[in-house]
């Protein structure tokens, strides 16, 4: 398909005073670079389809990888973010909330003496063995909290309540892991470290990064189900008189408990996310996957645009010989790339959304806020525009006189 038709060329060769040939072309096609770009793409639908598939694959993979990264980050620090505490006191060298060392009970009492501390609560987080009702076992993360403090309680309760934790041997699990733990409903009995436990409630959507489910119970019950001694704890959760003063109160707590780590909730949350997502290599693998998908997309778009430009080089040379500036020719090629990128984004994000809907009830959290979709779209369009560099360089090297040879 020619960029300028034969009839248009014949009409444009009729001389008119003070009007160059290209000036009259520009008068007719001014503002139509997008239409020319679209026609160039449609001229070879098979090639355009292959390009679109490559962009869709790249966008879908980047979206899924980015969403996994965001979901992992949110899951890793969920216990901290929903605890309702302003400050966490942990044993020295603690790297994340799921792996803890027992604190001596004196740290709890020292925390209560610091000015600005409104309340403090013992908190237990320990890996323990879970025996299923029908046989088999799983490693779970036992979470013991003092319900009266209002800190560290389970959230998103769909059956039972936080008060149920105080029932003798009562535990709360998440519905996502019920089948994994061999549970079909409330009232079932299991064994935790050889002691009887009973399901008294369920939450919805409390995932764990390690895939060892959280099992919530009261502090007193947790003492029976774990190796923690009476009065000891994994963490001391602190609520301040004024949450804005948490950094100052944390600094004073560090003086009172010099052998422990003291973190504001925001700092401990970030530390936990960084550990699980980056220190373990999981996050780097996801970023590497995003990079590879971007390279695939750029390569496919660059190759297609360059081949299409070579195929129509005579027509571009004709326009150049007639006085078309390079910026006009470049605009056609760049808009071809943007059309492909825009179509690929729409299809890729739609496929990713379907995948997220299917995985909504799965153990792996996928997060795709609007800002992520916008970022993926912007990056893809930029990627496609960058991929047009080779074709643009080829256009800029056109010899207008070659059309007459």
Provide an overview of this structure.
Helix 3 packs across helix 12, helix 4 runs antiparallel to helix 13 and helix 12 runs antiparallel to helix 14. Strands 1, 2, 3, 4, 5, 6, 7, 8, 9 and 10 form a 10-stranded mixed beta sheet that branches. The chain folds into 2 domains: 6-74 and 282-404, no CATH class; 93-258, no CATH class. 50% of the residues lie in helices and 16% in strands. The protein contains 14 helices and 10 strands. The chain is of the alpha+beta class and 405 residues long.
What order do the helices and strands come in, and which of them pair?
Blueprint: H1 6-12, H2 21-29, H3 33-43, H4 45-76, H5 78-81, E1 87-91, H6 106-112, E2 117-131, E3 137-145, E4 157-159, E5 170-174, E6 189-192, E7 195-203, E8 214-218, H7 219-225, E9 235-240, H8 246-256, E10 260-264, H9 265-279, H10 282-311, H11 313-321, H12 326-358, H13 370-387, H14 389-396
Parallel strand pairs: 3-8, 5-7
Antiparallel strand pairs: 1-9, 1-10, 2-3, 2-6, 2-9, 4-7, 6-7
Helix pairs in contact: 3-12, 4-9, 4-10, 4-12, 4-13, 10-13, 10-14, 12-13, 12-14
Rounded to the nearest angstrom, the distance between the terminal CA atoms is: 22 Å
Gross morphology: elongated
Order of helices and strands: HHHHHEHEEEEEEEHEHEHHHHHH
Return the structural class. alpha+beta
> What is the count of structural domains?
2
Radius of gyration: 32 Å
Mean pLDDT reading: 81
Helicity, in percent?
Answer: 40-55%
Number of helices: 14
What amount of the residues lies in strands? Answer: 15-25%
- Point out poorly predicted stretches: 1-19
Number of strands: 10
| Biggest pleated-sheet summary | 10 strands, mixed
